Amino acid sequence: MRLRGIYSVLLAVAVFATAGEAVAQKFPERRTARQGTRLYEKGDYAGAETAYRRALEMSQVYADVEFETAILPNHGVRDIIQFTHPDFGTHRYVENYWEIPLEAGRPMKHKMSRAVIF
User: Fold this and answer.
1) Pair 93, 113: CB distance under 8 Å
2) Bridge-partner residues for 21, per DSSP?
3) Comparing C-alpha atoms, which of 83, 86, 110, 88 is closest to residue 99?
């Protein structure tokens, strides 16, 4: 009976030990950020900055939104607008692309992106 308890404890320790590795594999930018911290502690500030920038770039996710409106030709690409959606909330987006079809009654198409930093 005592051996069974020891086995349960060892199994729990093994599961928790590998869970941390699974999280680190799921978020590789954390490993890169830790590498930047180690470089900073050693005094390699340029290397630390490079590692931190790489980790920041790895952690960015771009959310794309496509929608249609009435024709509004009075704006360009890279305009920033605030977009409110009942499911996604209110966020600011950058317009990457728009298209005006040359047919009567057709809507204007827009493609926008926002950066989400975790």
Assistant:
1) yes
2) none
3) 110
Domain coordinates of the chain in residue numbers?
2-59, 60-117
pLDDT in tens, 51-63: 888 887 777 666 7
H-type alpha helices, the chain: 2-26, 28-41, 45-59
Distance CA 63, CA 68 (A): 17
Residues 36 and 52 sit within 8 Å (Cβ to Cβ): yes
Answer yes or no: are the C-beta atoms of 79 and 67 closer than 8 Å. no
What burial class does residue 18 get, using C-beta atoms within 10 Å of its C-beta: 0-12 exposed, 13-18 middle, 19+ buried? exposed
- The CB-based long-range contact list for 97-106 (8 Å cut-off, 24+ gap) reads 100/71, 100/73
Question: For 81-109, b where at least 16 C-beta lie within 10 A, e where not — what string?
Answer: eebeeeeeeeeebebeebeeeeeeeeeee
Are the beta carbons of 19 and 31 closer than 8 angstroms? no
- Tell me, what's the pLDDT at 111? 87
What is this structure's pTM? 0.43
